[in-house]
Amino acid sequence: MFSSDFFDHIISKERATEILESHCSSLYKCFSESWKMWQETRKHLPSHGAKLTSTTTAGFIHDLMVDRAQREFVNRGDEICCYFQDRLFWIDFHGELLLRFKKLDDQLRPHNIITARQQTISQQVFKTENGSRWANDGATVANFGYRLNNTGNLRDLSIVCWYNNDLVWHIPIDSEAGIVTPVMVSTPDPASDEIIITPKKVKILKKV
Asked: What's the domain count of the chain?
């Protein structure tokens, strides 16, 4: 992990925290409500049916999160714009931060199929063509994602920003609002404090 100051077009972790702080509760609901619905759904899946792949499960949860987000972030004035572009769903925070929903792997990488479009996202040069209220060619792309453990249960939630194969910043999401699970916090950079967003406030973990 390194400082995003090296890239002028990528917003800092501190700026991302400032943007997301007042919306964290809504983001959390997008996942928590979708996860509860998925848990209920899989209880009723036929035991003799084909085993669902991780891709199918991720797609189901993603679609539920998108549906919830479209209701959570409606009528937010000029702060937020939600839209689809080429079948990708985005939450656009004032042209500065583009957020999408993804399943994350053990290294906090979003699961993606490599395409020309995905390369523009990974290289932080993705451009919105329509739907956005702002000319946001320089907007930073980040992922609000979740990780599962080996038994298929929730491990943790995070907002992550990647530049190609480098993790620029990582904001763990505290799950105290309903789902009881340990938050896997990465080792803080010795030069900075680790930031954790909660549904109500931002907590700064001070080193002792």
From this structure: 1
